Amino acid sequence: MEQPGHGLTVGLFATCVNDIMFPGTVRATMGVLTRLGCRVEFPDEQTCCGQMFTNTGYFSAGLATVRAFVQAFAKYDYVVAPSASCIGSVRHQHEMLSQNKPALARQVKTLVARSYDLCEFLVDVLGVTDVGASFPHTVTYHLTCHARRVACVGDRPRRLLEAVRGLTLVDLPEAETCCGFGGTFSVKNSAVSVALATDKARNIVATGAEFVVAGDNACLMNVGGVLRREGAAVKPIHLAHILNSEEAVR
Amino acid sequence: MSVIAPDETRRTPAPPPGTFLGMPAFPVNAEQQLANAQLRANLARATATIRAKRALRVAEVPQWEDLRAAAAAIKDRVLANLDTYLLQAEANLTKAGATVHWARDGDEANRIVTELVRATGATDVVKVKSMVTQETDLNEALERAGIAAWETDLAELIVQLGHDRPSHVLVPAIHRNRREIREIFLAEMGRYGTPAPPGLSDDPAELAGAARAHLREKFLVADVAISGGNFIVADTGTLVVVESEGNGRMCLTLPDTLISVVGIEKLVPTFEDLEVFLRLLPRSSTGERMNPYTSMWTGVTAGDGPQNVHVVLVDNGRTRALADPVGREALRCIRCSACMNICPVYREVGGHAYGSVYPGPIGIVLTPQLRGLDSAIDRSLPFASTLCGACVEVCPVGIDFPKLIVHLRRLVADRERTEPGLEPAVMAVGEWAFGQGKHLSLVERVAEIAGRVFGPWRFFRKLPWPGSLWTSGRDLPVPPRESFRHWWKRVKP
Amino acid sequence: MNARDEILARVRAGLADRGTGAGHPVDWVYGRATPLPDVLGRFVERCEDYQARVIRVAAPDVGPTLVRVLRESGITSAVWPAGLDAGWRAAVLAAGVTVIADDPPLTRRQLDETGGVVTAARVAVAETGTIVLDHAADQGRRALSLVPDFHLAIVRGDQVVSDVPEAVAVLRASIDAGRPLTWISGGSATSDIELERVEGVHGPRTLVIVLAE
Hints:
The complex is a heterotrimer.
Chain A: E1 9-12, H1 16-21, H2 23-35, E2 39-41, H3 51-54, H4 59-73, E3 78-81, H5 84-97, H6 102-112, E4 115-117, H7 118-125, E5 138-141, H8 145-149, H9 156-162, E6 168-170, H10 185-188, H11 190-207, E7 211-214, H12 217-229, E8 235-238, H13 239-243
Parallel strand pairs in A: 1-2, 1-3, 3-4, 5-6, 5-7, 7-8
Helix pairs in contact in A: 4-6, 5-6, 11-12
Chain B: H1 26-34, H2 37-58, H3 64-80, H4 82-95, E1 99-103, H5 106-120, E2 124-127, H6 131-136, H7 138-144, E3 148-151, H8 154-161, H9 178-192, H10 204-221, E4 224-227, E5 231-233, E6 238-243, H11 247-253, E7 257-263, E8 267-268, H12 274-285, E9 293-298, E10 308-314, H13 318-322, H14 338-342, H15 344-349, H16 360-371, H17 376-380, H18 390-394, H19 401-416, H20 422-433, H21 437-454, E11 459-460, H22 468-471, E12 476-477, H23 484-491
Parallel strand pairs in B: 1-10, 2-3, 2-4, 4-7, 5-8, 7-10
Antiparallel strand pairs in B: 5-6, 6-9, 11-12
Helix pairs in contact in B: 2-12, 3-12, 9-10, 16-19
Chain C: H1 3-14, H2 39-49, E1 53-57, H3 62-72, E2 77-79, H4 86-94, E3 98-100, H5 108-113, E4 116-120, E5 123-125, E6 130-133, E7 150-156, E8 160-161, H6 164-176, E9 181-184, E10 189-190, E11 198-199, E12 206-212
Parallel strand pairs in C: 1-12, 2-3, 2-4, 4-7, 5-8, 7-12
Antiparallel strand pairs in C: 5-6, 6-9, 10-11
Helix pairs in contact in C: 3-4
């Protein structure tokens, strides 16, 4: 049977947080895409979606990243990132940032339509929910705010997780509440950010799951930082790692 | 809870010292509030209750999304033609026997009201909950003029008697629990009128009963009432007050003089438009299908209610917000408070941290526009959000909060860019570093050195400032020894 | 410049970008009914949800019902608006209830000392369990149905509409006539203490609706 990704070339948008702090997640993303038959490339002009600048009010720096993004990815039919937040920023902020630059704005507009979070690309473009992964563990899933309300990925991550062999998914109480990361909010309003992450951590621990999974490492870094500080056993893990896992089901 | 000694020079309970504008920036206030476990417990409980009620009542209305879109469109129509609707409302109010006054700012509004009260000879006035008079601090202006203004909404009464400030648009005493309220009533009511019954328990029904008895005496003798207004209908000159307890009806009906102080954005074009807002507001606000009482009046009705009717139209920064094509969307707000009940930040810290009568998401987009960006507190407000977007889902008039927040952050950044500070410097370096892949590659080399040096520890527990902003409450992973970019370059699969 | 002119000038300056023409279309059809299988049934259910008591009676039985309700509630004196049905008034009087006219107008203290008030209504809303008074002669001025602690309202079945839009359409005439409106949904209530709903604050603590069909 032909693989669903056969003949497709994907521009892998690592995103800055993953590139610098979580390269394993980018490799896992690559792993899933490759296993499904895609050809994956990493254009090294890429930097960042720019939201840490845009959302802090520094639009000119945001615009610089938009330029880098266009330069890196204009030649690809598909841009895929392991971050709904960064894809959300591409979708909703890049046009705003480039609105006074008509030529750039035109490129942005067409590129936005070709940019996907990993779960969207798998479900919508490749048409798969069972990616052939196995992960024999109990996990709870946090649909991050930008996945839920900006990129609007809906139930795609859940469908992908439910098809993973050996995986037991337990519901996370108050799943719709923010973990408190919020980009520069996490340091500008450090105390509130920690308070929110502490609430989130408490809900995660209460599930009894071994892993808390999400599609954005920045959120996981925030709540994971509290979990670790509190000595909790539950481990944060990006969705890509689970989808790329072939751990034997006993 | 401390009991505050009565100030013999005053007629009404003294509010806490200081002013909103003199408050430190949001993060400082927020940290103080976070230390108050009782406050956080009260807030968590109350906001969870009201969120659940709202969700239940909203789910009953199949056309909810259409209603929201209609409300947004009606409010945008009002804002785009505000001059026309203001003149139409003024003409209809005048024709109906009301006197219309205009106030450029809070001081002017307070002056107008004070003079109107003085002209009646009254030394006491009863008040219906009104956000705009909170904005202008009318009660203190009246107190300085020797006029006692008595708040009659239960929560406002709790705040006033508690020498406190409101912390929520709808339920100003949301930060207080029943035991605290009982203490306030027992300690304070007797000083300003009918005392609380000596055996008062902390049962909410008994507490409400004490408020009924305390305020009934005031309602029966008051000659002047001051209200706000939820809506002014331009095509009829009708004012609308939406309430629950009946204190509004008492104030709007019994005294001979009624002064309504209303923001200029509170207009709706036609009476028919109320069908949209009367369905959205109660369900969004108190989570009820309909609030217990809504009063509508058009100027003076002979033989029924106040015969001396005044309406004060207040700008107080609204035209400043209107002049910002992005920011003006905040003027759609109908003060339902759904955004604060759902806001994770508000739920942690409560309303007092915001240094404004408008806390939560609406507060952080409206207050800096009404007051400008000169104070530390106002500059910090747009940053008091994780941009999680929960408020967008519940706003009955479809305010795009994240869009407005980011816009206001930009206005703050544009002012601070030229000032010395860590953030503008970091952002300038960031603009270079993230402007090109090869620049970012250099930054990654630095991170990789840190990764090699600190690798064995795997996590940072305690970093010096500014890293401490993260590690104060969270561990931080040590960066890996090789970024993805460099791995790719080395391996090129 | 006076405050009025200055505010208007600020508004116009602030809207310099508005251009002309187009405007802001509102995609909404006004005055539509909400489809309900049983309008009166829904009205009763929703009123009771808000702790109002609703008694459904045939139109000729309104008089005796008023007598029964007032007696059960221990109301020995009731304010009676001048325009309210004389036959009902006679029935209530015959039962020994003191009927008080608002002529000359009752003082606030007198109203406070009166046991209750009986009024008609202008329109009622099924979906929200609301009655709306426009304070015509059969309802009396606003203070009458506010200060006494007991309010008995008589609503005719044909006055009950499905939802708020239909009610607003009906009430346009009252507004055009300069009448004030009072929308009443259950008794007075507050949720100001820990968001827990408490019935009965300043308005009448008891609301009884007699629905005459």
